[in-house]
Amino acid sequence: MPSRKNIILIGFMGVGKGSVAREVVKNSKYMTIDTDDLIESMENRKIKNIFDLEGEEYFRRLERDVAKWLEESVKNTLISTGGGFYKQKNLKKIGTVVLLDSPFDAIIKRIKAHPNAIKKLKKRPLLADLKKAKELYNQRRPEYLKLADIVIDVTDKSADLCSKELLKKVKKYV
Ligand code: S3P
Questions:
Q1: pLDDT per residue over 58-67, tens digit each?
Q2: Is 78 in contact with 25 (CB distance < 8 Å)?
Q3: Which of 34, 81, 115, 129 is deepest in the core (most CB within 10 A)?
Q4: Which ligand 1 atom sits nearest the alpha carbon of residue 63?
């Protein structure tokens, strides 16, 4: 396979980055990795445990280590990220940035509709307080939009449809 740039998926917690990444894998030759999964393997514990025992700053440092590794060592890959990973200074050097975008209320509705909704909410410390989460969303959304090379509105769309839109739009970048 010729060398291609990475695709890096950003967006708020619960917007469906993992689901879209899995569909992209089905519909293309990309393989995918997830920054939260990398951190959990590095630490051999769950993100929630890292937040609870070490605090957010420690977690952000781990994200920085992952970002450095991705820039130096990963190619041809679809990289799904945690909702705060976009703050990494070298984000644009890692690959083409694709934002999965949706209004806050639609994201919460999506999480709550999931059969594992309670688990999905529990594993995300920054979603514990929905009022604070909405403030975080409002603060982040303009920053996400500024960084994105491509924006995909995922509201009320299947992950399969989003993945096809992504693969079409990304062609001119990779
Ligand atoms: C975070 C999002 C989470 C995870 C951590 C922090 C954030 O990932 O990285 O709980 O700052 O938005 P998801 O976006 O996959 O939920």
A1: 999 999 999 9
A2: yes
A3: 81
A4: 9
